[in-house]
Automatic annotation (TrEMBL):
This is Uncharacterized protein. Residues 297-331 form the Integrase zinc-binding domain. It comes from the Eukaryota. InterPro entries: DNA/RNA_pol_sf, Integrase_H2C2, Retrovirus_Pol_polyprotein, Rev_trsase/Diguanyl_cyclase, RT_RNaseH_2. The keyword Cell membrane does not apply. Signal peptide: none annotated. GO terms for molecular function: catalytic activity. Residues 36-134 form the Reverse transcriptase/retrotransposon-derived protein RNase H-like domain. The lineage of its organism: Eukaryota, Sar, Stramenopiles, Oomycota, Peronosporomycetes. Keywords: Multifunctional enzyme.
Length: 331
């Protein structure tokens, strides 16, 4: 139902859209039996493909102003870069979302919304920096005044210095109207109740096909936890990598001894590494999302690349695009 709400919002200009989603809509009728058949999967795949095609997705036009919609849930942030086309239709240039880190999930609500705004500006920096005044739409009204408050936390003060680089105006957009960003920030596979790509559902009607899709699409480790055997394989391979074994040992038990065992170059970059459970992660810079470190194991790297390419999220991209996509989440 939530996913169809997003699709309905984006497809208001799409020809024959009602017929396209009819198999899916029938599942939501009162007293309808929930049974996912091939025709439902075909309809779902068709709608999903159309979301990344014209007239929904468009190339950025430098001659037209950009605007950003963003939102935060309890466990994720979502945002999109938008423009209006020549016919006045709102079009998507790029969708983005990511799962919150454990510490970020403890932020106050307005800080979560600011986090979504900040990350959107980072992701869309190449389009927005130096741009004439652009609009940022959020469903948290207090953000309009929070950035002018004389009582700021250290975190907010740092973020405001970052925001000062951009020329934008914040507008309030109620959640019921902020459909796109709201849906992106509430992806079920970002919910911390999802364990290793498989939903924790106490209902007897757990959908095994859906869970299989979750697992198949979970190769993107920064956004979705990997399936268990791949995660374990990555963690186990750290022990056989001379460099990363030392880093993991230091992060698990920081001491002069474990730090001294590292090379000078590694010691100089040690603050870029952290452990997410047993997974070693690396930040290229302070604005970069953490990337999962992959040990120097050719077979393991090939498996990650192949699984990403063959997964639904991988979309069977070409070699260079697949490599670029994997490189955003792995190091």
């Amino acid at each position: 139902r939530q996913w169809l709400g997003l699709a309905n919002y984006l497809h208001k200009y799409t020809k024959d859209y009602a017929g396209l989603i009819q198999p899916l809509s029938s599942l939501l009728k009162k007293d309808a039996t929930w049974l996912w058949r091939p025709e439902h999967q075909a309809a779902f795949d068709s709608v999903k493909k159309s979301l990344a095609s014209a007239p929904i997705l468009m190339l950025p036009a430098d001659s037209k102003p950009f605007h950003v919609v963003c939102d935060a849930s309890d466990f994720a942030i979502g945002f999109a870069l938008m423009q209006f086309d020549d016919e006045g239709r709102e079009r998507v240039v790029s969708y983005q979302s990511r799962q919150m880190k454990p510490a970020e999930r403890n932020y106050p609500v307005h800080d979560k919304e600011l986090l979504a705004m900040r990350y959107a500006l980072i992701k869309f920096r190449v389009y927005l920096l130096g741009e004439q005044t652009f609009a940022v739409y959020t469903d948290h009204a207090s953000l309009r005044t929070a950035m002018k408050s004389p009582h700021l936390s250290q975190r907010m003060a740092r973020w405001l210095s970052f925001f000062a680089e951009y020329n934008f105006v914040v507008h309030y957009k109620p959640g019921k109207n902020n459909i796109l960003a709201d849906a992106l920030s509430r992806r079920p596979d970002y919910d911390p109740r999802t364990v290793l790509g498989r939903q924790v559902i106490d209902d007897e009607d757990e959908d095994d096909d859906y869970c299989a899709v979750c697992i198949a699409s979970s190769i993107n480790l920064t956004n979705v936890a990997p399936e268990m055997d791949l995660r374990d394989e990555i963690v186990a391979a750290y022990a056989d990598d001379a460099v990363y074994a030392g880093i993991v040992a230091y992060l698990r038990a920081p001491s002069d001894e474990t730090l001294g065992a590292l090379s000078r170059n590694t010691r100089n970059q040690i603050d870029r590494y952290h452990l997410d459970g047993d997974l070693l992660c690396y930040n290229i810079d302070k604005f970069d999302a953490p990337r999962v470190v992959v040990p120097n194991d050719d077979d393991l790297r090939a498996r990650i690349t192949h699984e990403f390419h063959d997964s639904p999220m991988g979309a069977h991209l070409g070699r260079e695009k697949t490599f670029a996509a994997v490189s955003r989440d792995f190091f």
